[in-house]
Design a protein that fits this description.
Chain A: One of its GO terms (cellular component) is plasma membrane. The complex is a heterodimer of chains A (about 300) and B (about 300). Chain A is mostly helical and about 300 residues long. Chain A is built from 15 helices and 2 strands. Helix content of chain A is about 75%, strand content about 0%. In chain B, helix 8 crosses helix 10. The termini of chain B are far apart. Classes of the chains: A mainly alpha (about 300), B mainly alpha (about 300).
């Protein structure tokens, strides 16, 4: 609301130019007004997480003003951060995401390079195929994948279901097509002269990729990395299907299955957990927003 | 002697040959290198995406214990169930209304952000994109708490305006409204950022020319902005339609399909039937119903992309 300021400096002179600048001033005021409304709409749930996380359970059930904290306490944070379970979920999530990001980059960067630069038999079809793969949602594949991994377990005796590392096989199906697609776009925008010069100087294809393309396309690489991380951090359906034991769960599933016991909702802790689970993507986004947006608009992400 | 001469002769010939076919060799090496570079990608897609997709077709034709081939029996069974038709109806209501509202809000907000002086845009963009950054499973928990029946923050606030307690997730109509609201909240920033990028690419001269011709605000949007943004609008909407249609976490956490299966969409019902009810073939059949919609949307998107590729 404070942003709806009345511009006192300009108008007296600007009015001389006629109605257009007056229109613009009003358009600007209306813009700020509605943007404030939309910003409130966007920020209510995260703020409410924060407010609730600072309340004790007594204050939550006292049904006082839900939008205000009368006796702020950090007890929810202390309890969660010292409980083994929660830390376990957090580390599971962190490990899964970090390894998946690494796998994704190792697979998608060379593939995107080959698809963007080295025209070969079927490369156009494969590029389209990558794009189509990216459109296949997790909610279509979770049942056959579950059955597949169960069958593998029966045949080989290697138990994959209900192990956190099964997610390392599955998450790349979400991240790889999409990061490859982004990277194809970035690589394609690099001037051809650069790699032609490198090839003439005797560089191999691999050297061209590591010495020229990766440094030049670094912004795209960062965007793809951020995306792969956010996608694996936020996944909910696959871990819900593939893991059940408490020590194998990742954060989103862990919070929902352990903090909600039947009909008993310990809201203080749930909100604290949700906020801590939302923190890593939010922190990355706060520092690397421009890369995130660049990736979003370049790759036309899921939404 | 003869042997040596023959050998040296052969190497010489090979050398000459290599020089002559150097180009062809380089090309062969190139396609070999390209093949090796894309091999992990091909394997990943083939084993973990294409195979399961086909496998689910096979699964859908088995009986519950997965011992017998029942042909289209599962589908026959689904068509006779009232819940299935509820799910079809709800999936369509959910996806279409959520996408329409996301697109509208995204368009309006993008316009406002575009109006703001360039140096202040970053701050607004940052705040408005927050819903998109938070993992949906986490933010949906916050919404669930905001909708809580007894301590609901929304009902507390509404009571000041004399609006009675609303059964947000308890009543079928309100539960539908709630899941759509949360989905719109989560997905609108995506549209906002895509439209904002599109708006920035519209040349300023077009607006100036329109203004000189006396076009009003509405005419400028209708005759300048919309035609220039048509491609982005179409592609973003189709994308979002696919993802919204296949949504899982929001509905699962907020209502788990209830009350009385009224908010189930394909993904959540497939999970309920296939994993929780351990009838994997039936679950696979349910999720297969998403394929026609996805395919149609994908065809349109592809057409758009190849068209764009031809233009550039």
């Amino acid at each position: 609301m404070s942003t709806v300021t009345i511009d006192k400096s300009g108008p007296t002179r600007k009015v001389k130019y006629g109605s257009m600048s007056r229109d613009r001033t009003w358009a600007l005021r209306w813009s700020y007004f509605f943007l404030t409304l939309f910003a409130i709409f966007s920020l209510v749930p995260p703020l409410y997480m924060l407010i609730t996380s600072l309340k004790s359970s007594a204050e939550i059930s006292a049904a006082t003003n839900p939008w205000w904290v009368y006796h702020p306490t950090l007890s929810n944070y202390a309890e969660l951060l010292t409980s083994n379970q929660f830390l376990r979920f957090f580390w599971n999530s962190a490990w899964v995401s970090i390894i998946v990001v690494t796998i994704t980059m190792l697979i998608s960067v060379p593939a995107a390079f080959a698809l963007a630069r080295m025209k070969f038999w079927g490369s156009a079809t494969l590029a389209t195929g990558v794009f189509l793969t990216y459109l296949i949602p997790d909610s279509l594949l979770f049942i056959p994948l579950f059955k597949m991994f169960a069958v593998i377990g029966d045949w080989t005796g290697v138990q994959l279901i209900n192990r956190w590392y099964v997610l390392l096989f599955i998450y790349p199906t979400l991240t790889v097509p999409f990061c490859t697609w982004i990277m194809i776009g970035y690589f394609a925008s690099i001037p051809k002269e650069l790699d032609e010069a490198a090839i003439i100087d005797g560089a191999s294809w691999f050297q061209t990729l590591t010495r020229i393309f990766i440094p030049v396309a670094l912004p795209g690489l960062i965007a793809a990395t951020i995306f792969a991380f956010t996608v694996s951090w936020a996944q909910f359906l696959y871990p819900l299907v593939f893991t059940t034991s408490t020590d194998q769960l990742v954060l989103p599933v862990g919070i929902i299955t352990t903090l909600i016991k039947g009909d008993v909702f310990n809201w203080g802790q749930i909100m604290t957990g949700a906020l801590l689970g939302a923190a890593p993507p939010l922190i990355i986004y706060a520092f690397l927003m421009d890369y995130y947006i660049a990736g979003l608009t370049a790759g036309a992400t899921k939404g | 002697m003869v042997d040596v001469a023959f050998q040296s002769n052969r190497t010489a010939a090979a050398q000459a040959g290599r020089r002559r076919t150097g180009l062809r060799n380089a090309l062969r090496r190139k396609s070999m290198a390209a093949f090796l570079m894309t091999l992990p990608l091909i394997l990943l897609i083939a084993i973990l995406v294409l195979y399961p997709a086909i496998y689910s077709l096979h699964l859908a034709t088995l009986n519950k214990a997965m011992t017998k081939f029942v042909g289209l029996g599962n589908f026959e069974f689904l068509f006779k169930r009232e819940t299935f038709w509820l799910v079809v109806k709800q999936s369509c209501i959910f996806a279409i209304s959520a996408v329409v509202f996301k697109a509208l809000i995204g368009f309006i907000v993008a316009h406002f952000v575009h109006n703001v002086p360039a140096n202040k845009q970053r701050k607004w963009r940052g705040m408005l994109l927050v819903p998109w950054v938070i993992p949906p499973a986490m933010s949906t928990l916050a919404w669930l708490w905001l909708f809580d029946p007894s301590y609901s923050a929304f009902n507390y606030t509404l009571s000041f305006f004399g609006i009675g307690p609303i059964p947000w997730t308890g009543d079928a109509m309100w539960a539908r409204f709630s899941v759509i609201l949360v989905n719109v909240w989560y997905g609108a920033p995506f549209f906002m950022i895509m439209y904002l990028a599109a708006l920035k690419s519209v040349p300023e001269q077009l607006y100036e020319a329109a203004a000189i011709d006396g076009a009003n605000w509405w005419q400028r949007i209708w005759y300048v902005t919309l035609p220039m943004m048509r491609n982005i609008i179409a592609i973003t909407t189709l994308f979002s339609l696919i993802v919204t249609f296949a949504n899982f976490d929001i509905v699962r956490i907020l209502t788990a399909g209830g009350p009385l299966d009224h908010t189930h969409i394909f993904a959540t019902w497939a999970f309920r039937v296939g994993i929780e009810g351990s009838d994997i073939p039936l679950g696979a059949s349910v999720s297969l119903f998403m394929v026609p919609i996805l395919a149609v949307a994908a065809i349109f998107i592809l057409r758009d992309i190849t068209k764009r590729g031809n233009e550039s």
